[in-house]
Amino acid sequence: MPATPSLLKRLPPLGFLAALLVLIVVLLLPQAAGLPLAGQRLLAILAFAVVLWLTEAVSYEVSAVLIVALIALLVGTAPNIAAPDHALGTSKALSMAMSGFTSSGLVLVAAALFIAAAMTITGLDRRIALMTLSRIGVGYGRILIGTLVVTVVLSLLVPSATARVACVVPIMMGMIAAFGVSKDSPFAAGVMIMVAQATSVWNVGIQTAAAQNLLTADFIHQVTGQSISWSTWLLAGAPWAILMSVALYWVVHRLMPAKSVAIAGGKDTVKKALQELGPMSRNEKTLLGVTLVLLLLWATGGKLHHVDTATVTATGLGVLLLPGLGVMSWKEVQSRIPWGTLLVFGVGISLGSALLQTHAGQWLGNVVVQGMGLESLSPFWLFAVLSLFLIVVHLGFASATALTSTMMPILLSLLTAISSELNVPGMALLLGFAISFGFILPINAPQNMVCIGTDTFTSRQFIKVGIPVTIIGYLVMLLLAASWWPLLGLM
Q1: Cβ atoms within 10 Å, residue 376
Q2: Measured between alpha carbons, how far is 140 from 262 in angstroms, rounded to an integer?
């Protein structure tokens, strides 16, 4: 009997067993008309991955390795679509499974993570946040506004949502302590919920603010051959983010009201922290200069120059790593990079590409279009239905990157199947906005989990704010879909 607990510990998690069962069931289904065997096997792998991601039975990094192995083995032994008399071969299938690591999207994500690490190493992110807060003033309402402003500024300069939150959270926790309120007070809860929700809002507004945006742009380029520029994304997403910032402030202030608190030392605390940082160092000035140049080049891509965003960012990273001129060494940065994120991102691109190469995405898109009658809907109502679907589905995902890897290739196939007159890149871009809707559950986004880890609010409080924010966000999207986005030619 004493051996039973240890035996149970060695058993695979139930979520993994469920994923394995789903994989086997889909593999054993009769082959559908128009769906190659390689495509059916890829859909089985996709179903396996989705169950793993939903249940979090294994880490995302482990799931990425399993996906690569399954693609190599299952798709590699399936008939070659171009030459059905021969198997594709495990070597070619493995190349398919690793193709995402040659994507410009992965290069951009990697460079963005390095730049975010440079912000932390030099302390520039903390200086920017403190300088912004020092100019806002004290008081609950002003602190909420200050949090929003900090989020906007850092969203432009720090291309990583998790890095931005990791910078802001300690600063805000220090301010909460200085204000003389407890961690579980409405004041603390409102401020920290604002940090998480504002980060999600501005993930929509700025292309380089979140990994899922870069993945969306990469898939759009793969399928349509068209690139979504940084400025195009900003023109489409920033109006929504600005309107939602106002709405978010109103919702948090209304639903998380804070009584007057002893905040006399709040502003002094910020100024003291700034004084302790001292004057800007050479590294901070160099990093700020490089970042502003990157921002300018991102915004003018396709207009004043034709260098793509990934190349621009990689070049900026090279400057930051240059001996003597740069701001960091490889040893300083390597321990700060979440290498697992790059692994998951690369495999996510590979999975999406494989869905298209095996014709699984196209087949699934056609089935959904015919089954739901989507071809009869106008662009507005098509967006309304699909965006609502993505918002609801996101409730089951802890990663917007995983959701993008799962849904964006299928959505692109679906949009392509509906009508040749539909603006597929534009509609896919707008649907990419809906993928960032991680407002309701703390588990729906990494920034939410970082903030709830401070023990300043409960899941119930987060949901209380998240539900109205989600509803308002969806309605604002419909408003823009009926007015602004058609003017941009995206619908």
Answers
A1: 10
A2: 11
pLDDT at site 436: 93
Residue 6 is predicted with a pLDDT of 60
Would you say residue 1 has pLDDT above 50?
no
The type of residue at 76 is: G
Global confidence as pTM = 0.83
339-357 vs 360-372: helix axis angle to the nearest 10? 70
- As a whole number of Å, the CA-based R_g of the chain is 23
Summarised one tens digit per residue, pLDDT across range 336-382 is 888 888 888 888 889 888 888 899 888 988 888 777 788 888 999 99
Under the banding of pLDDT at 50, 70 and 90, the label for residue 268 is confident
CB within 8 Å of 346: residues ≥ 6 apart? 64, 98, 100, 101, 103, 106
Q: In 179-210, where does DSSP find H-type helix?
A: 186-205
CA distance 246 to 237: 15
End-to-end CA gap in the chain: 65
Distances (CA, A) of 353 to 51, 64, 101: 20, 14, 12
Cα separations in angstroms, 14 against 9, 51, 58, 251, 474: 12, 11, 10, 39, 35
> What is the tens place of the pLDDT at every residue in 383-408?
999 999 999 888 877 778 888 988 89
User: What are the tokens at 340?
Assistant: 């697992």
76 and 97 in contact (C-beta within 8 Å)? no
- Sign of the CA dihedral with 201 first, then 205, 210, and 212 last: positive
Cβ(345)–Cβ(213) below 8 Å: no
DSSP symbol at 2: T
Q: How many contiguous H segments (helices) and E segments (strands) does the chain have? A: 24, 0
Cα–Cα distance for residue pair 267/274, rounded to 1 Å: 11
For 161, the token pair is 């949502």
Q: What is the pLDDT of residue 362?
A: 86
Q: Are 126 and 151 in contact (CB under 8 A)?
A: no
Q: Which residues of 25-37 are buried (b: 16+ CB within 10 A; e: fewer)?
A: ebbeeeeeeebbb
